[in-house]
Amino acid sequence: HRRFFMKINELEKTLNINRANIRYYEKEGLLKPCRKENNYRDYSEDEVFVLKKIIIYRKLGISINDIKNVFNKAK
Asked: Residue 11: CA atoms inside 13 Å, Cβ hemisphere, count?
């Protein structure tokens, strides 16, 4: 089973979300992409899954703080 990685522009297109939102979720600690030597963000399939959950929660009107609480309880 091979793991895949996506760049931020691929995430934007695939999940129909803008780069500013992705960076905001990262700043809030919800996403933790790895950084390459060139400082580009690489999002693993796990990060993509987390981002999909964030998108759903936000569409349901759930606040960032509540999403953080859900993720922290899941750990």
From this structure: 27
